[in-house]
Amino acid sequence: MHKMKLFRRLSIILLLLVFSCGGSSQKADQRAEAFSWQGVRKSDLQGPEIEVVGADGEQQNPRVIYLWDRRLYFVVWEDWRDGQADIYGRFLKEDGTFCGNEINITNDPSNNQTWPTMAYDYRGNSSNRILVAWQDNRGTNTGGYIYYRTLSNLPTHQNCNTTPTINAEAFVGYTPILGDALTTRKKPSVAYNPSADEFILIWVEGRNRIKQVRENCFDLAYRTESFGDYTYIGYI
């Protein structure tokens, strides 16, 4: 049994935040307090919990984003219903009802995919896509351990019959430093940078030797300072 048994069924409370420019509608007030330009007020939770998935096994590590131009939420989670961990996702409307069926983002019967993270390319045209990344036990000393794929052809709140396209997965490569080798990668996190039209993916990485800082002070002999505990943040 997975050692991090948190709960059998995943229930996610969606905090529906409403952004208001100088005021809010009655409909918005029923969901949450509005944000105003004068400051941010604490929003109230409204309504019951929403059970996103009721499958057997454990579901954990949920993440949720809001697709403002499509008026949908997208939830992903780590799912153990088949005995190994896969990544699933689902779209929800603003009122908490489902928009389409569950999406099996990964399905590898021999390996575990865990710790999902995602970001939305919201440029407002047909190329909009969601990038989902995850921690994976597929990896060697030359690459892997962090995988990702994009979802395109996304639905809107007015058209939940659209089936998203799940594009091919890829893994993060590896560049050695001073002859070292990769040992682990964990806890990915991704964001979208609209000004450069790119996704930025970071993670915690372990390599098989402590790194060294070398400096040359006024033509004297090199002085070496060691640092780190095999953990590195932000390799791209």
Brief overview, please?
By secondary structure, the chain is mostly beta strands. 3% of the residues lie in helices and 46% in strands.
Describe this structure in words.
- The chain has one helix at residues 26-31; strands at residues 10-12, 18-19, 34-35, 50-53, 59-67, 72-79, 86-93, 103-104, 113-121, 129-140, 143-152, 165-166, 170-171, 182-193, 198-207, 211-215, 223-227, 231-233.
- The chain is mostly beta strands and 236 residues long.
- The protein is globular, with a radius of gyration of 21 Å.
- The two termini are 33 Å apart.
- The model is unreliable at 1-38 and 227-236 (pLDDT under 50).
Tell me the number of helical segments per DSSP (H or I, 4 or more residues long).
Answer: 1
Give the mean pLDDT: 76
Quaternary state of this entry equals single chain
Please provide the count of β strands. Answer: 18
Structural class: mainly beta
The biggest beta sheet is recorded as: 5 strands, antiparallel
Low-confidence stretches: 1-38, 227-236
Shape: globular
Radius of gyration: 21 Å
Query: Which range best describes the helical content: under 10%, 10-25%, 25-40%, 40-55%, 55-70% or over 70%?
Result: under 10%
Strand % is over 45%
SSE succession: EEHEEEEEEEEEEEEEEEE
Measured between the Cα atoms of the first and last residue, the distance is: 33 Å
